[in-house]
Fold:
Amino acid sequence: MSDTSPSQGLFDDAISRLDLAFPYADIGEEALAKLKKPKEILEVAIPVRHDDGRLEVYTGYRVRHDDTRGPTKGGIRFHPSVCLDEVKALAFWMTCKCACVDLPFGGGKGGVVVDPTQLSLFEIERLSRGYIDAIADFIGPDRDIPAPDVYTNATIMGWMADQYAIIKRVKAPAVITGKPLALGGSLGREDATARGGVYILQEVAKDMVWDYGEVTVAVQGFGNVGSHAARLLAAEGFRVVAVSDVSGGCYNPQGVDVAAALEHVKASGSLRGLPNSEPISNADLLELPVTVLVPAALERVITHANVDRIRAKVVCELANGPISAHADEGLRQRGTMVIPDILANAGGVTVSYYEWVQNKAGLYWPLGEVHGRLRRTMTEEYRRIRQLSTDHRIGMRIAAYAHALRRMGRAVEAGGTRAMYTG
Ligand code: GLU
Structure:
């Protein structure tokens, strides 16, 4: 199977990791079989009236991969390359991610095939509300809980939560996380994915006995995850030497001024032309000889086509699925440490869980509480996975999957969703 096309075979590629981790998970075959197929798939048509009067009908999906450990949880992506295979893979990763950091959730994901950069704000609002009209009976605070993902944000989550309340005639803020604070969002959700990754890199730095100032970092992607990651890493004293977005990248071996980059994007809309840096392509950024590479955009950016040229010592996957299974093996052979997505970017869904808990309790936490709990979760789960990786001499990805599989397998074996019922 080729791993170069952006999403062909993505789900199969994703679940192939289960077989590799199975020997270390100490669970039965039946649990494994159950996790290889998504539980439920919904495809919907979303008619949207454009500002010029034209009607456009968009395609959307929502996939619930597995709910043995709790209601399904996962974001909604607006992107032109969304397809069912991709949403299935993303839902599967959410199941593994929630188990990896021990949240009482299964995995789900949604997507709409659309280029939101071509839509006005009002068109995006109508699309967001239309998507909820279409999936309202599929989701719910104890069934399936969406959140932001690529090209969706707090404002969109606010519209969606409001639309759900209109349809169901009840206020149910716990149906969606990543909402604006004014509508029941949690403090600390905005930068949680990036922050969780930074907490882990701080643990890696301890293990590697790194001096922060000597650690060079390249961040691919400057959306909600990448831009916060660059900002937080720079604030901790790491040297962020390259950043990139869809317009291309900026490189400065002495360190990019991340605060200036954020201002530049705010003023001009992209990183293009950032002063005091040289332009670099996204492809070249991935191949820089840095200490840490942080892919923070889309899946499959490191494949058999470029894996031999990746020179980073550590790859911290803040995106979902940026490394193909084939490239994983290449990196392992070269001794590159990969902090896998199901651990590295789990900070987002972890704070989504805190938001859901706060919504259900009707009691809201201060920022310090969110950060403290997040750091504890990320650090403890990293330590457990690292131990598994050392004990069995396996890479961090397989160790993370084995760790998640144990929890998922135990839930299946305990009778969750009647998977093992034989009476
Ligand atoms: N979209 C994010 C992810 O891939 C967050 C999901 C959530 O908060 O439910 O992990």
About this structure: The pocket of glutamic acid is lined by residues 73-75, 147, 149, 177-178, 320, 345, 348-349, 352 (CB under 6 Å). The radius of gyration is 21 Å. The first helix runs from residue 10 to 21. The chain has two domains: 39-183, 186-423.
